[in-house]
């Protein structure tokens, strides 16, 4: 009730004399902002504007798409699936037993280079149907432990791959445990093609996420052994395969960088790959592929961007043309209220 | 009227003053005292005594805050979590602390904390303001008796029941007080009750003679003691039942002795009072209830969308959980190996254990509901609140809705109805003070059967335009006002026959004299004399009344002083031609009310004759005339009809001489009735006064013009073009209402009028002869028939877009609002372009509003300015108060207050349209962005075998809703203008967008949602 007491806050009073005359005037102060009169761009979608916009988008997008597509096509990519081929015929009906067995798993592959590949040629391994993004998997790691030896006992999120005989595993967790362990050796014309495995991981990962003074401990000591073992004398920051692997992939089909070949590959070269087929993807029907690829300014081979540009550009052009035809053939007056939705049902309006 | 010289002026104790209760006998209500409901005992002047202590009544500390320091957190948190969305987020927040959580607990709790704390800060600030006010009020000082005849300053909050206080002039009363004595001899005092009922006129209170004789100065209180027994605290402002036991004697107490908290002492030097009710027991605080909270249609629909979203979330979670369960089961150890060995499912905890896949799936369901919580816009409510407050600021700051003359900008009192302003389908408007200025101008009168006054009213002008088509159409309104502005405010009368004293030369001079005297005497105005110029101005309850007193003054009958029992005025003596002062002794005032529709005074003139002077509405007055008082009846009736046609408010003036014996008898009964506090007090008084106001002699009639406000016709025209239906609910006569309708362009010449009334000869004859039931039956039948006829007419016109106007009077309305008939009435009324209900009571106004609201299901807006519109304002979806002349009551109960009717155009067409499109688009935008975000999360799940791994980083998840995506939405809600104000005016039809709720139809909402879904698909590909 008492809130009805008059409030004498002077809101306005523009000029000084007005303020003096009516110090308590409640006249609102004028400004274009408070009066909602700020200039604004309110384009009206007239046929001309619409057609022009579509036309311009079409004209810009189509060449862009062509350029992107060209760039993508310029990337040379060789993909070699080897998961089945590297199993001896005898073991093919039980691949899992083979891969879990102890026999020698060397395997020879031959890759034909059809077009010249400029260096650097990137070597990837591609896994399919592999859920690196599974929540249980993603969480099973301890970043603190990777960064600093102080935190090596902090393994609670790593279960079940956390400790062995009460001693912490470094690096702990399922991600590290399942480290990919196939290896590739390339020879061309009986000459070894060296694979550069330095600098294949993110610089930030090497420098700040994996400690220079953190060394693998108790790694792959339990059973079963998941994947690759690590040299306990090399700090984690230099274990680049691990660093690459630990950056978990977002999708169940993914490529990870294995290394770089710093020489050009000529068209017609035959490259022999000596492959250690160790990694078990057979139990979950995952595929394994070896990929050699160059890059362009757009990155790796990916036609999607170009195709998207081309599609949208063509649709725009098509719309521009069809609207023009419609506009010329059957023009109508702008701002005719009888076309308003609530007038249309009333049958012609007032 | 007050001054130091007045103090202690020797006046007679006025036992016959109209408000006096005198020594009324104990009515039956007083016998209740001591019983249930009447148990309060106040030991005056001994608040500390053991007897008083035992009573333990509450202190005078008043708390208007919602929270205390201790209860703020629990209570406001509780309020917050009553919202289903907030509660959901609380549950997910708690779950996020467990291992179920797909993301860090911070991600779930941070947005919730931000949203909750933002709302709590807002609540806190609002409450802090109230707290400041409380502190200010509670620490006000008042003089309190300390037991030794000395009064010292004390804070209000320390007052106890039974304390004696001394309140000085222009101070507020600190609690409900029993008036003991005042600076006036007869212990009356003047009280302003603006804070209570919004009425600006002063009310008179009077203490008991017993106490006022005893207590005249501070020292008298040293040995004073008395006991008051009275009713318990209650809400009734106009009734008080109690007794005062003083020195072995008991006196009845009524509301006349009670000074209510929050009213103000005026024109009185000081009063002494005993505290009866303190703090929350006081009547005003018992009365303060929260205004009915209104929620907008859009928000109610929004709730439904949120439930839909919940449904979606649970559906998606369910689907996801099933797939997850199946895939987890497949990880089972088979032949000593597991499929996805890298997950080590054989060593998994319960959440991923393939051996217990169903349980894992159930747990996953909870995880999923947390993960998909991004479908529920957590910050929606708080964003909408922010946006609405900002929108209200824009409305308040709109310079086009600022009225220079009264210095009043528009005032959005509640911000949660902004968008409803854009959806108004029907406007229900009061007439007086809303469409018109409510500054009455005396313009014509008919005395002794002769019509005087040459002024032309706006309605007459409009009528001339209608019939003759004279070129007054495009005239600037300001010019019209300037031209017709009267020289004297409230008086626009021109007639040389009776002005400047010429009336004495008229044939019926004696009647004229009586007429003018009646104008000068029969009223409740209080004069204020300007000391320097000697000019008299008046403070009156209503502008009509002021107009009469001013008119009397202009005619040479200057009312200049009112005492407790006398009215003094100057007039020209017929014989000597000189100005003489006359003092009429005022014996009784028979007050005006809406059922009586008349007001009378009983006076003793300076010759000692007793006179009853009466003025009232024509329908009640003509039937009260004496046989010999009907000399001018026919002529006057004719003039009154003419005046009504001209849109004027008319009153009939009549008088009679009263016999001494008759008066004594009347006075006794009247005082008894007044003093009684029983239920039927009003009826009793009505009956007694009714007997008195009979056999009157007609003098004439007055006509005052209630001018249309500036720009009303244009505004109504625009609103009609916007497709808004306008109903006018007025208490005026049908003719007046119709003419105002034409003047305000509510009715147009080409419109077909359907008039429903009960003025048929059959019913009239029944009224003269028949019984009550018979009349009722016939009336109902007649109304139904007329309604049916109207409907038939409407149906017949069908396709041809002929406009109809329905005009119905109050009596017919009573029947039309009955349950069985109201459907027909509503059908007919909604078919008409304009509806005018005349002669309608406040209750009927509210009922009509409810009928329209519930019957059509569309948004209704009621606009009014007076206390009689409060019901209507509260009943309607939006109540707009005109902050005009008639007090503050309408404004206090309104949602938005504007100063002039014409601002409604801008309020609805511009602000309403904008607010509606802003809020509607904003909510849709909100759901769009949340769906886009949520669907990407869901689709990503499909790639992670529904393991519950979020697609985004924790921080991105938590801040998406509250930071990253909230500002664009708020900006849209505050600034977006689909069309500029200019176009809103130019194409009023655009307003239909809101009325038909196109931007927030399910089609549109689903469209937005589908768009969100498509966007999500694009995002993921």
TrEMBL record, chain A:
<dbReference type="GO" id="GO:0005886">
    <property type="term" value="C:plasma membrane"/>
</dbReference>
<keyword id="KW-0812">Transmembrane</keyword>
<feature type="region of interest" description="Disordered">
    <location>
        <begin position="1"/>
        <end position="23"/>
    </location>
</feature>
<dbReference type="GO" id="GO:0005794">
    <property type="term" value="C:Golgi apparatus"/>
</dbReference>
<feature type="transmembrane region" description="Helical">
    <location>
        <begin position="307"/>
        <end position="329"/>
    </location>
</feature>
<comment type="similarity">
    <text>Belongs to the CDC50/LEM3 family.</text>
</comment>
<feature type="compositionally biased region" description="Basic and acidic residues">
    <location>
        <begin position="141"/>
        <end position="156"/>
    </location>
</feature>
<dbReference type="InterPro" id="IPR005045">
    <property type="entry name" value="CDC50/LEM3_fam"/>
</dbReference>
<dbReference type="Pfam" id="PF03381">
    <property type="entry name" value="CDC50"/>
</dbReference>
<keyword id="KW-1133">Transmembrane helix</keyword>
<protein>
    <recommendedName>
        <fullName>ALA-interacting subunit</fullName>
    </recommendedName>
</protein>
<feature type="region of interest" description="Disordered">
    <location>
        <begin position="141"/>
        <end position="160"/>
    </location>
</feature>
<feature type="transmembrane region" description="Helical">
    <location>
        <begin position="49"/>
        <end position="71"/>
    </location>
</feature>
<keyword id="KW-0472">Membrane</keyword>
<dbReference type="GO" id="GO:0005783">
    <property type="term" value="C:endoplasmic reticulum"/>
</dbReference>
From TrEMBL, chain B:
<feature type="transmembrane region" description="Helical">
    <location>
        <begin position="305"/>
        <end position="326"/>
    </location>
</feature>
<dbReference type="GO" id="GO:0140326">
    <property type="term" value="F:ATPase-coupled intramembrane lipid transporter activity"/>
</dbReference>
<dbReference type="Pfam" id="PF16209">
    <property type="entry name" value="PhoLip_ATPase_N"/>
</dbReference>
<dbReference type="InterPro" id="IPR001757">
    <property type="entry name" value="P_typ_ATPase"/>
</dbReference>
<feature type="binding site">
    <location>
        <position position="730"/>
    </location>
    <ligand>
        <name>ATP</name>
    </ligand>
</feature>
<keyword id="KW-0460">Magnesium</keyword>
<feature type="binding site">
    <location>
        <position position="732"/>
    </location>
    <ligand>
        <name>ATP</name>
    </ligand>
</feature>
<keyword id="KW-0547">Nucleotide-binding</keyword>
<dbReference type="InterPro" id="IPR032631">
    <property type="entry name" value="P-type_ATPase_N"/>
</dbReference>
<dbReference type="GO" id="GO:0045332">
    <property type="term" value="P:phospholipid translocation"/>
</dbReference>
<feature type="domain" description="P-type ATPase N-terminal">
    <location>
        <begin position="42"/>
        <end position="108"/>
    </location>
</feature>
<keyword id="KW-0812">Transmembrane</keyword>
<feature type="transmembrane region" description="Helical">
    <location>
        <begin position="926"/>
        <end position="943"/>
    </location>
</feature>
<keyword id="KW-1133">Transmembrane helix</keyword>
<feature type="binding site">
    <location>
        <position position="845"/>
    </location>
    <ligand>
        <name>ATP</name>
    </ligand>
</feature>
<feature type="transmembrane region" description="Helical">
    <location>
        <begin position="361"/>
        <end position="382"/>
    </location>
</feature>
<dbReference type="Pfam" id="PF16212">
    <property type="entry name" value="PhoLip_ATPase_C"/>
</dbReference>
<dbReference type="GO" id="GO:0005524">
    <property type="term" value="F:ATP binding"/>
</dbReference>
<keyword id="KW-0472">Membrane</keyword>
<feature type="binding site">
    <location>
        <position position="865"/>
    </location>
    <ligand>
        <name>Mg(2+)</name>
    </ligand>
</feature>
<keyword id="KW-0067">ATP-binding</keyword>
<dbReference type="InterPro" id="IPR032630">
    <property type="entry name" value="P_typ_ATPase_c"/>
</dbReference>
């Amino acid at each position: 009730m008492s809130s009805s007491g008059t409030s004498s806050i002077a809101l306005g009073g523009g000029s000084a004399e007005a303020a003096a005359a009516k110090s308590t005037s409640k006249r609102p102060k004028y400004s274009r902002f408070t009066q909602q009169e700020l200039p604004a761009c309110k384009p009206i979608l007239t046929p001309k504007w619409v057609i022009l916009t579509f036309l311009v988008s079409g004209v810009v997008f189509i060449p862009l798409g062509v350029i992107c597509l060209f760039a993508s096509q310029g990337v040379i990519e060789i993909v070699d699936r080897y998961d089945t081929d590297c199993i001896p015929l005898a073991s093919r009906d039980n691949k899992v037993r083979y891969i879990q067995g102890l026999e020698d798993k060397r395997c020879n592959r031959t890759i034909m280079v059809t077009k010249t590949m400029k260096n650097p040629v990137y070597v990837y391994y591609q896994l399919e149907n592999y859920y690196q993004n599974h929540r249980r998997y993603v969480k099973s790691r301890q970043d603190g432990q990777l960064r600093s030896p102080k935190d090596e006992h902090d393994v609670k999120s790593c279960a079940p791959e956390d400790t062995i005989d009460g001693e912490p595993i470094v690096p702990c967790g399922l991600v590290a445990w399942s480290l990919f362990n196939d290896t590739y050796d390339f020879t061309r014309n009986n000459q070894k093609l060296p694979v550069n495995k330095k600098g294949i991981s993110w610089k930030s990962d090497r420098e700040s996420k994996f400690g220079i003074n953190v060394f693998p401990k108790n790694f792959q000591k339990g059973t079963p052994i998941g994947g690759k073992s690590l040299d306990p004398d090399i700090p984690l920051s230099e274990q680049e395969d691990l660093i690459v692997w630990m950056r978990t992939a977002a999708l169940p089909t993914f490529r990870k960088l294995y290394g770089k070949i710093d020489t050009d590959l000529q068209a017609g070269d035959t490259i022999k790959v000596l492959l250690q087929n160790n990694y078990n993807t057979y139990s979950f029907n995952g595929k394994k592929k070896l990929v050699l690829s160059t890059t362009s300014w757009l990155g790796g081979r990916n036609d999607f961007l170009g195709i998207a540009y081309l599609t949208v550009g063509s649709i725009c052009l098509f719309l521009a043309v069809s609207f023009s035809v419609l506009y010329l053939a059957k023009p109508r007056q702008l701002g005719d209220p009888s076309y308003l939705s609530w007038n249309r049902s009333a049958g012609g309006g007032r | 009227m007050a001054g130091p010289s007045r103090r202690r002026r020797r006046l007679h104790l006025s036992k016959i003053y109209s408000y006096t209760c005198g020594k009324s006998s104990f009515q039956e209500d007083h016998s209740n005292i001591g019983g249930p409901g009447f148990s309060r005992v106040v030991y005056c002047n001994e608040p500390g005594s053991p007897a008083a202590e035992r009573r333990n009544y509450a202190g005078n500390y008043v708390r208007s805050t919602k929270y205390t320091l201790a209860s703020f957190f629990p209570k406001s948190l509780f309020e917050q979590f009553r919202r289903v969305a907030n509660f959901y987020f609380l549950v997910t927040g708690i779950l996020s602390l467990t291992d179920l959580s797909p993301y860090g607990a911070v991600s779930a709790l941070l947005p919730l904390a931000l949203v909750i704390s933002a709302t709590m800060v807002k609540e806190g600030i609002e409450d802090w303001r109230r707290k400041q006010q409380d502190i200010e009020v509670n620490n006000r000082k008042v003089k309190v008796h300390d037991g030794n005849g000395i009064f010292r300053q004390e804070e209000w909050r320390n007052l106890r029941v039974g304390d004696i206080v001394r309140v000085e002039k222009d101070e507020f009363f600190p609690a409900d007080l029993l008036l003991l004595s005042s600076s006036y001899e007869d212990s009356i005092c003047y009280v302003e009750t603006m804070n209570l009922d919004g009425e600006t006129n002063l009310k008179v209170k009077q203490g008991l003679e017993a106490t006022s004789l005893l207590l005249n100065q501070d020292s008298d209180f040293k040995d004073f003691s008395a006991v008051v027994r009275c009713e318990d605290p209650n809400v009734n402002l106009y009734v008080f039942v109690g007794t005062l036991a003083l020195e072995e004697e008991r006196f009845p107490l009524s509301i006349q002795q009670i000074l209510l908290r929050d009213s103000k002492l005026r024109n009185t030097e000081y009063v002494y009072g005993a505290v009866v009710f303190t703090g929350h027991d006081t009547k005003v605080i018992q009365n303060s209830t929260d205004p009915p909270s209104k929620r907008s249609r859009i928000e109610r629909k929004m709730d439904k969308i949120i439930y839909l979203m919940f449904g979606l979330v649970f559906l998606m979670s369910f689907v996801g959980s099933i797939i997850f369960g199946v895939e987890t089961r497949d990880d089972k150890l088979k032949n000593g190996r597991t499929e996805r060995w890298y997950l080590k499912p054989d060593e998994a905890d319960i959440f991923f254990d393939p051996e217990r896949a169903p349980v894992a799936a159930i747990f996953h369901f909870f995880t999923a509901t947390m993960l998909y919580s991004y479908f529920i816009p957590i910050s929606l409510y708080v964003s909408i609140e922010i946006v609405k407050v900002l929108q209200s600021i824009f409305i308040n700051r709109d310079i086009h809705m600022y009225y220079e003359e009264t210095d009043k900008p528009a005032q959005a009192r509640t911000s949660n109805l902004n968008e409803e302003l854009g959806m108004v389908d029907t406007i229900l408007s009061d007439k007086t003070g809303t469409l018109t200025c409510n500054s009455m101008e005396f313009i014509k009168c008919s005395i002794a059967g002769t019509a005087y006054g040459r002024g032309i009213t706006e309605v007459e002008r409009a009528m001339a335009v209608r019939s003759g088509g004279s070129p007054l159409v495009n005239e600037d309104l300001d010019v019209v006002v300037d031209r017709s502005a009267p020289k004297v405010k409230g008086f626009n009368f021109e007639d040389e026959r009776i002005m400047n004293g010429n009336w004495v030369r008229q044939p019926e001079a004696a009647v004229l004299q009586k007429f003018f005297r009646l104008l000068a005497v029969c009223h409740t105005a209080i004069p204020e004399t300007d000391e320097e110029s000697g000019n008299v101005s008046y403070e009156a309850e209503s502008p009509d009344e002021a107009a009469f007193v001013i008119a009397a003054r202009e005619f040479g009958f200057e009312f200049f002083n009112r005492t407790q029992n006398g009215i003094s005025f100057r007039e020209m003596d017929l014989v000597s031609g000189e100005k003489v002062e006359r003092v009429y002794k005022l014996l009784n005032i028979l007050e005006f009310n809406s059922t009586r529709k008349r007001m009378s005074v009983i006076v003793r003139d300076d010759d000692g004759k007793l006179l009853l002077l009466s003025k009232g509405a024509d329908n009640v007055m003509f039937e009260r005339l004496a046989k010999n008082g009907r000399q001018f009846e026919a002529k006057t009736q004719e003039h009154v009809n003419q005046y009504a046609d001209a849109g004027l408010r008319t009153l009939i003036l009549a008088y009679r001489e009263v016999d001494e014996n008759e008066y004594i008898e009347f006075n006794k009964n009247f005082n008894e009735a007044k003093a009684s506090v029983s239920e039927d007090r009003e009826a009793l008084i009505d009956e007694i006064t009714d007997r008195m106001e009979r056999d009157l002699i007609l003098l004439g009639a007055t006509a005052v013009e209630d001018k249309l406000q500036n720009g009303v016709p244009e505004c109504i025209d625009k609103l009609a073009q916007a497709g808004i239906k306008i109903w006018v609910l007025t208490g005026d006569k049908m003719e007046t209402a119709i003419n105002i309708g034409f003047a305000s362009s509510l009715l147009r010449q080409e419109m077909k009028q359907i008039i429903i009334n009960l003025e048929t000869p059959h019913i009239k004859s029944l009224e003269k002869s028949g019984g009550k039931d018979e009349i009722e039956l016939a009336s109902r039948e007649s109304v139904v028939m007329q309604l049916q006829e109207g409907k038939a007419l409407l149906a017949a016109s069908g396709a041809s877009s002929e406009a109809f106007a329905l005009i119905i009077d109050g009596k017919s309305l009573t029947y039309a609002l009955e349950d069985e008939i109201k459907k027909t009435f509503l059908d007919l009324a909604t078919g008409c372009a304009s509806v005018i209900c005349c002669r309608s009571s406040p209750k009927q106004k509210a009922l009509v509003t409810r009928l329209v609201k519930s019957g059509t299901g569309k948004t209704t807006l009621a606009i009014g300015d007076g206390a009689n519109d409060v019901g209507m304002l509260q009943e309607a979806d939006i109540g707009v108060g005109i902050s005009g002349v008639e007090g503050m009551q309408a404004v206090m109960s309104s949602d938005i207050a504007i100063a002039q009717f014409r601002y409604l155009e801008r309020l609805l067409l511009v602000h309403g349209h904008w607010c509606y499109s802003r809020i509607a688009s904003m909510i849709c935008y909100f759901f769009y962005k949340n769906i886009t975000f949520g669907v990407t999360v869901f689709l990503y799940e499909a790639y992670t075998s529904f393991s519950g791994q979020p697609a985004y980083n924790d921080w991105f998840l938590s801040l998406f809703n509250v930071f990253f995506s909230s500002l664009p939405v708020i900006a849209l809600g505050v600034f977006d203008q689909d069309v500029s104000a200019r176009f809103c005016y130019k194409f009023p039809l655009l307003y239909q967008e809101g009325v038909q709720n196109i931007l927030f139809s399910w089609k549109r909402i689903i469209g937005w949602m589908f768009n969100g879904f498509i966007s999500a698909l694009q995002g993921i590909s």
